[in-house]
Amino acid sequence: MNRKIFIIHSSEIVRKGINAILRIYFNTEIVMLEKKEELKGFCELTGQEIIIIYENTADSTNTNFFQLQGNNQVKWIAFLNDHEEPAQALPFCKFYITTKTQASQLQKMVSRCWDKTRRHPKTSDSEELTTREKDVLKLVALGHSNKVIAEKLFISIHTVISHRKNITEKTGIKSISGLTVYAILNNLIDTETINPEDLI
After folding, report:
1. Engineering a disulfide at 188: which of 1, 148, 155, 183 sits with its beta carbon 3.0 to 4.6 angstroms away?
2. What are the φ and ψ backbone dihedral angles of 137, each rounded to 5 degrees?
3. How far from chain centre, in Å, is Cα 10?
4. Domains, the chain, ranges and CATH?
5. Among candidates 156, 198, 180, which has minimal Cα distance to 18?
6. Where is the HTH luxR-type domain (predicted)?
7. Positive or negative, the Cα torsion across 97, 117, 169, 128?
8. DSSP characters for 93-153?
């Protein structure tokens, strides 16, 4: 059975970041959509194992979700922007995530949706970033160049590059958008401090 993951969120940063995180663990097609209404273009899918990670909003409607459910095995993971679980359970939702959810927690949720043994990245999730690596990661996530990071932290560009290499090895994330979401999910930066234009 073929598998697909749909990431539906109004924020391009969130979409690209979740995509970068999941690509580390899962070798499957990932489709990024801005609005739930865009799911109507996929309603003819059949025989798929589908996970939909979607932004839960007050006006959320599940019409397209129900159409997909008819011919596929679908699991839902709701992204809660207000950081709190809803007062009432959301229809069909298996898990909830927020900006405080750890990258490894999201990976485990997807694995549990598919009931398969998780695929580990090359490095251990338990390998912690040092304080200086976190400082570098914050500035990388905010779109600063190696030169600017070196100036702000009073270190050499060579040292910045070394820290960035260590960060990539420990997190398993190579893209700036992925590192940005990693920083958000680990409470290193706030989404309001990010300029999407600075991301590559």
Report:
1. 183
2. -60, -45
3. 13
4. 2-114 (3.40.50.2300), 131-198 (1.10.10.10)
5. 180
6. 122-187
7. positive
8. EEEEE-TTS-HHHHHHHHHHHHT-PPPPPSS-TT-PPPHHHHHHHHHHHTT--HHHHHHHH
Tokens of 176: 């700036």
* Secondary structure (3-state) at 195: coil
Assigned token pair, 84: 């709190």
Q: What is the pTM of this model?
A: 0.58
Gap between the Cα atoms of 153 and 183, Å rounded: 18
What are the structure tokens assigned to 83, written together? Answer: 């950081």
Residue with tokens 């100036």, as numbered in its chain: 151
List the one residue out of 108, 161, 141 whose CA is nearest residue 16: 141
Please provide the size of the chain in residues. 200
> CB of 122 within 8 A of CB of 112?
no
What local confidence, expressed as pLDDT, does residue 122 receive?
A: 40
Q: What sign for the dihedral angle of Cα 81, 115, 30, 40?
A: negative
